[in-house]
UniProtKB/TrEMBL annotation:
It comes from Micromonospora arborensis. GO terms for cellular component: cytoplasm. GO terms for molecular function: aldehyde dehydrogenase (NAD+) activity. Residues 3-212 form the NAD-dependent epimerase/dehydratase domain. This is Reductase. InterPro entries: Epimerase_deHydtase, NAD(P)-bd_dom_sf, NAD(P)-dependent_oxidoreduct.
């Protein structure tokens, strides 16, 4: 295939470009080159999509497939206007942040309610909390369907993406923490559900979707699993036998200013229950049936750990620091064993 990746200089876009080259496709990546570099073997076209005419230079070419990762509505609109007429299939990487209901587990993409589109004066996510992120993705999904038609557009609403080159502190926190050994603070209960998708698996599915002209809207998620299986799976991937997990009650953590999801004092892949019980527990069946092949968790862990070892400066250092973790564990055990 002749594939155009709008992006391709970091994480998912880059993994997709890399895999496409390995599969023998003719790959063009269009981006600024600010976030990183596109992989070897692609044709890199420098463009700044803030310029509405940026993609006009590619409008004379035809592509079997476009894969776009943008969060900016105008970027999508201009790309579709320039390219839709001579593209066979369009994949848009959206997000599960489009959903309006994060509480109900087991929801399916085709019937779950989504947020309204972004207001007219919003073009992209705003500020450190990425306000309007989900709404902007909803707006872009609509544009893609309008320009390409439902049958030629693949809307992939990715869940938490993990693996090598992860720019976030989320999955890498657990890889770092389990590899450090000792008593590990495990949040919530062993049976809490967690869900994510390996970046290489998602890349493979995007290319499969392009190749088979898959149309429609799907969640790009692997099967949900228990948090105990997650933490034991991370340990298994690292070759750590019998990790010592101490499960700490959610309310105790919240009362001690331990935060959910990501950032300073946060425990990643932990969200408040029952309010967020739907966030990490969506129906993975449609994606599996449409060709998303999921590798075993220890393989994802090994790929992440080996990237972390090779590129320590690129690994974001977030989460609970060891001294805080030890102090909270001491206080928790004093309360628990009283
Ligand atoms: N990470 C997760 O857990 C997660 C979860 C759900 C959904 N998602 C979605 O998955 C996608 C991930 O994409 P990704 O990993 O490839 O990373 P990304 O951070 O979304 O990358 C954005 C890409 O767009 C390019 N870009 C940004 N501004 C540009 C501009 N003005 N002109 C041209 N290119 C521009 C960047 O390249 P340059 O900066 O080099 O130009 C980069 O290649 C995103 O759509 C995200 O919303 C992510």
């Amino acid at each position: 295939m002749r594939i155009l990746i709008l992006g391709g200089t970091r994480f998912l876009g880059r993994a997709t470009a890399q895999l496409a080259v390995e599969q023998g496709h003719e790959v063009t990546c269009a981006a600024r080159g600010v976030s990183g570099v596109a992989p070897a073997g692609v044709r890199f076209v420098p463009v700044d999509r803030d310029d509405p005419q940026a993609l006009a230079q590619l409008a004379g070419e035809s592509f079997d497939a476009v894969i776009d990762v943008t969060r900016q509505i105008s970027h999508a609109r201009h790309a579709l206007a320039a390219l839709a007429d001579h593209v066979g299939h369009w994949s848009f990487v959206s997000t599960i942040s489009v959903y309006a209901d994060n509480t109900t587990p087991g929801q399916t993409a085709t019937d779950a309610p989504v947020l309204p589109p972004a207001p007219a004066d919003v073009d992209g996510p705003v500020g450190p909390d990425h306000r309007w992120y989900g709404e902007c993705k909803v707006s872009i999904e609509r544009l893609v369907r309008e320009w390409m038609g439902v049958d030629r557009s693949f809307i992939c609403r990715a869940g938490l993406i993990v693996g090598a080159e992860d720019p976030s502190d989320r999955f890498p926190y657990w890889v770092r923490r389990l590899s450090a050994g000792g008593e590990v603070l495990a949040p919530g209960t062993p049976s809490d559900r967690v869900q994510f998708v390996d970046v290489a698996d998602l890349a493979g599915w995007l290319l499969h979707a392009a190749d088979t002209r898959l149309g429609g809207t799907y969640d790009g998620v692997g099967p949900a699993m228990s948090r105990a299986d997650l933490l034991n799976g991370v340990a298994a991937g690292l070759g750590v036998a019998d990790p010592v997990l101490t499960w700490v009650d959610q309310e105790f953590l919240l009362a001690h200013d331990v935060r959910e999801w990501s950032g300073e004092r946060a425990l990643p892949l932990w969200v408040r229950l029952p309010e967020s019980a739907g966030l990490l527990d969506r129906d993975a069946g449609p994606a599996r049936d449409a060709g998303l092949a999921v590798r075993p968790l220890p393989d994802t862990v090994r790929a992440t750990a080996s990237w972390m070892r090779a590129h320590p400066a690129d690994v974001r250092q977030g989460g609970l620091d060891p001294a805080d973790e030890a102090a909270i564990l001491r206080e928790w055990k004093a309360v628990r064993d009283r």
